[in-house]
Write a structure and sequence with these properties.
Blueprint: E1 5-10, E2 13-18, H1 29-44, E3 50-55, E4 59-61, H2 81-98, E5 103-107, E6 110-112, H3 114-119, E7 124-128, E8 132-134, H4 148-156, H5 158-167, E9 170-172, H6 173-178, E10 184-186, H7 191-202, H8 207-220, H9 225-240, H10 243-254
Helix pairs in contact: 1-2, 4-5, 8-9
């Protein structure tokens, strides 16, 4: 396994650390490949019931390592950035959003470019007070990728999405939380303690139900109400047949903690 992505297990939680701290954990092809393999493995691992992603060192992720994409002005050399988006960044977004277990993101420092976009695809996103989000694409003649235009527009609306993307201004963690872009801000020293506590809690919960919640909320972004009502009905029927539902009701009536298996 590449050292650009580290994985450790704490019970049902997998802690995934982007590990290129000398480059603010910016993406190169090696780290893309390592993260893809890691997420595929964890998605298929029934013993993993929550995934926590963070960055090593003083940053979360500075986006693309531009030294891998440098083009000298006037050289005539061109890079197909669409190929990188299609083969690496888009599949990364789809892996995280399709994962049938909660993904928690702990933003421990700067999240810039694709790193900022990546962070916002977590199901629950926490940030250290010192963390910053920067949509830096316009500074190098590009537009936000990794789902950035979709996420910003859906979470913030057009006015804020356009200003953040066009001005490339730094957004503080506290303002990101105030705007509803992330779940909450915590003191730097407490970030991983709180992120691990949330992940550990979710790892004991009915994983199939959490996956259904995640998927239904994703669908709600584009479904009309009638379609969403039908989807909720179908999922309630499916989950209502599960052992976890029976266990949850029994635990409630018996006034005890439930013992969920996470299965549908």
């Amino acid at each position: 396994m590449s050292e650009t992505v580290l994985v450790e297990r704490e019970g049902g939680v997998a802690i995934v650390t982007l590990n290129r701290p000398d480059r603010l954990n910016s993406f190169n092809i090696e780290m893309h490949g390592a993260l893809a393999k890691t997420l595929d493995h964890l998605a298929a691992d029934a013993t993993c019931r929550a995934v926590l992603i963070t960055g090593a060192g003083r940053g979360f992720c500075a986006g693309q390592d531009l030294s891998d994409r440098a083009v000298a002005p006037g050289s005539g050399q061109k890079n197909d950035l669409g190929e990188s988006v299609e083969k690496r960044y888009n599949p990364l977004v789809r892996r995280i959003r399709a994962m049938a277990k909660p993904v928690i993101i702990a933003v421990n420092g700067v999240a810039a470019g694709a790193g900022a976009s990546l962070a916002l695809h977590g199901d629950i996103v926490l940030a250290a007070k010192s963390a910053k989000f920067i949509q830096s694409f316009a500074k190098i003649g590009l537009l936000p990728d990794t789902g950035g235009t979709w996420t910003l527009t859906n979470l913030l609306g057009e006015a804020r999405a356009k200003a953040l993307a066009m001005l490339a201004e730094t957004l503080s963690a506290e303002k990101a939380a105030d705007w509803g872009l992330i779940w909450k801000v915590v003191d730097d020293a407490d970030l991983m303690t709180e992120a691990k506590a949330i992940a550990a809690h979710l790892a004991t919960q009915p994983t199939a139900a959490l996956a259904a919640i995640k998927n239904a909320i994703h669908l709600a972004a584009t479904n009309p109400l009638d379609t969403q009502l039908d989807h909720e009905r179908d999922e309630m029927r499916r989950l209502g047949y599960s052992d976890d539902y029976a266990e949850g009701v029994a635990a409630f009536l018996e006034k005890r903690a439930p013992n969920f298996t996470g299965k549908a």
